[in-house]
Design goal:
- The chain is about 25% helix and about 25% strand.
- The chain is an alpha/beta fold.
- It is globular, with a radius of gyration of 25 Å.
Length: about 425
Amino acid sequence: MVLFNQYFLYLGIPYNIFIMNKIFLLLLLFTCSLSAQYDLVIKGGHVIDPKNNIDAILDVAIKDGTIAEVSKSITSAAKKTIDATDLYVSPGLIDIHGHHFFGTKPDAYLSNSYTALPPDGFTFRSGVTTVVDAGGSGWRNFLDFKTQTILHSKTRVFAFLNIVGNGMAGGPWEQSVDDMDARLTSMFAKANKDYIVGIKLAHFMGHDWTPAQRAAEAGRLADIPVMVDFGGSDPPLSMDHLLNTVLRPGDILTHCYGHLATREPVVKNDKVEPFAFTAQKRGIIFDVGHGGGSFTYEQAIPAIQQGLKPNTISTDLHTGSMNAGMKDMTMVMSKLLNLGLSMNEIIAASTWKPAQVIKRTNLGNLSVGSVADVTLLRIEKGNFGFYDTSAKRMPGDKRIVCELTLLDGNVVWDLNAMSFKE
């Protein structure tokens, strides 16, 4: 102690004063950290928030897991600051058509079996914070899905409940009209309304409107939308009748740019069918649902050029699409960007519109007080190639990449460590 005193006296600084100043400095730093107004501020990004008609360079502040401020220049202290220069800042992406009821049940297709995928491994890296399982479970096995997946995922997971009580087990299971009970399905949906956001009909093959009518009835009774993957029949049933008579405004046609021989497409001879425009105008939701066999340029290019743009963008993620032309949410968005949709249209169809469709309007926006799900996206320029489900290649010069994803204000994906200090 004497030696320290002599050393600091030699410098002209009494040792006790040096110690007091050091303690004061530490206390000051501690106090500043406690008084930080925000947990995180995202600076200088191109914010697109369709709900609030925002399309500008702005800062976004987050506090206690919610959006606290969106303005031109936030100067208040923050515990962490992220520089989003040259990046797009959007609400967390919502994928309303995926398959996540994964399990080990053999020969059960997308219902507690091997073809479905655990959400967290495929969501955050592409900017997705919320998914909807599209019919993997029915009322008979939804509780298994809830226990295995919903309650054990960081990703926010909802479900379209299959009109088939046994869910999307494939083959004859999905053809069982006797297991399509509108009353029981709707009752179960209402009893689990925190997680079930719609009804799903898929893959039915037959010249019979009964499955579609029962799904529509279940949706009406539960006051939730119906998503239809129109399977097909020989001869094909009328898509006009399905969209403009059976379904209600707010119901969803997924695989809107698919082309199967057993169902009427929305584009014939390079012309959009009038029934498609009529349906979209009356409020039918046209969902991409890319998947492994349901997105063709033959349909998408003329449809988009003639004004039949998708209301919602989704992946139809499963083992048959994740390594093919679909890949992930940002790949589907990239295809549509190269087909002429604006970034504003793409983000709207991936955030606010799907939030409205599933009636979860606390999501998909950056309103003050909303949950702080945020995605930072970059557009790469270069020579790229994209292929559809018919193996047709399309060149493109733009590709969307997810740099960072926040869930409830917490970083859950950071491609280039932009939220870390050197």
